[in-house]
Please model this.
Amino acid sequence: MPKRHITGWKATIAVSMSNYIDSGSIIAIATSLGFWKAAYFPNDDGTITGLLAAFSSNAFGAAIGALIGGPLCDKYGRKFIYTYDLLVYALGGLIITVTANLGMLFAGFVIIGLAVGASVPAGWTYIAEFAPADRRGRHIGTTQLAWSFGPFIGYGLAAALAPLHLLGSRLIFAHLVVIALVTWYIRQGLDESEAWQQAKGGATAKPPSVLASFKALFSRRVNITALVFLACIYTFWNQAASQNGIFLPTILSSMGYRALQSDLFSMLSWGFVIVATVFFMALVDRIPTGSTTASAARWPSSPGSSWCSDRRPRRGPHSGTPSSGACPPGPRRRPSTRCGLPNSSPRPTAPGPRASCSSRCASPAGSSRSSSR
Model:
């Protein structure tokens, strides 16, 4: 096991690698369906192909995995998921690599789908919890960048290995298995999320039950609104994304394009996605949202945490979550808005002991005025 703890950008890359193999599995399936069909179900009218795609990492397999992995991630921690999910993924990929019949192929697709579904909520949540607030967008963007490289490299491998037909498809899945195992080994150096430990009351506290977590989730209107919004976005977005992801080679083939042409065209399209993602990462943390202060003022305090005078959480050395330590540097407020005090409020003229972050704006008036701006 790795002796050194992995933090910062190294931790982000280690977690984001699951996005590479997740999207890579979808493209490996997409580029190999024709070869599997010719070998194991040549008389298929589209039913078997559709079922394989539906229960893979492209659709229901991932959905069921997310429904299982999400609650487990909240109950047992992020590290529990990313310790085991890649081993499950590697098992599914290995079955597909050596598959000898349709039953083995279907089992491998389902296992990979479950692993992909479980890994996504754990990975994205982990990065969002430990990434520094002023660079969180770039860290989260890294997951999308890794996801985009999965199809880009996957289609490139499919184009290069197309002359090998079914053997080439097996090799693509084999490379995903190797990357999954290497990533699993590296991830052993990751620490548990401090935010998750604080949310459940400390590192040694017993986490709430799954039922209690769901009740808490749906007890606030803002949570329900966010869930409905995300459900609408992903329902309609994935109609196009899933069809493009797993059936584009089949569609282009039906239009008369050869496999090589189809793979190179798809690879080019994902190259544009990579460029757009890099552009997003360069700008996301520089654009103010306009609601950060208000959101911070409404955020409930947790045991052991405190907030700075401008409602920014204290940061630990490797995370953006509230923790003990000095306030992060930020712009000085004008006397008229500092802690909600009026212009006539006297300012200290002699140096004295520095007040703690939590005591600077303890008055309710200060908090309400800060949030209104």
